[in-house]
Amino acid sequence: MIKLNVHEAKTHLSRYLAKLKKGQTILLCHRNTPVAEIRPLPAALAKPRPIGLAKGKFRVPASFFKPLPEKIIKAFHGDTA
């Protein structure tokens, strides 16, 4: 983990971005007090995920489409009585 004060990070941002790409983590500090942690984002998928991978593995029961009980509907609106 790299510990940086804000001034150093602003001055040499591109240098530290290159280190982030390699997997490093930066602890950003303000007057030597940690205020944020900067981590690289996970790598993007090489190709889009295909649709329908679970087709035929489960069924949605007919009860799923029935209206909810009145008690549950009231609870969604904040009525707990």
**Annotated CATH topology of the domain at 2-38:** YefM-like fold
Mean of residue pLDDT values: 90
> Which term fits the overall shape?
elongated
The tally of helices reads 3
Quantity of strands, as a count:
3
Structural class: alpha+beta
* Rg measurement, Å: 25 Å
* Element-by-element helix/strand order: EHHEEH
- How is the biggest beta sheet arranged? 3 strands, mixed
Beta-strand share of residues: 15-25%
Adjacency order of strands in the biggest sheet: 1-2-3
Given this structure, which CATH class of the domain at 2-38 is correct?
Alpha Beta
Q: Judging by the overall fold, what is the CATH architecture of the domain at 2-38?
A: 3-Layer(aba) Sandwich
* Helix percentage range: 25-40%
Residue ranges: pLDDT <50 for 5 or more in a row?
none
- From the N-terminal CA to the C-terminal CA, the straight-line distance is 52 Å
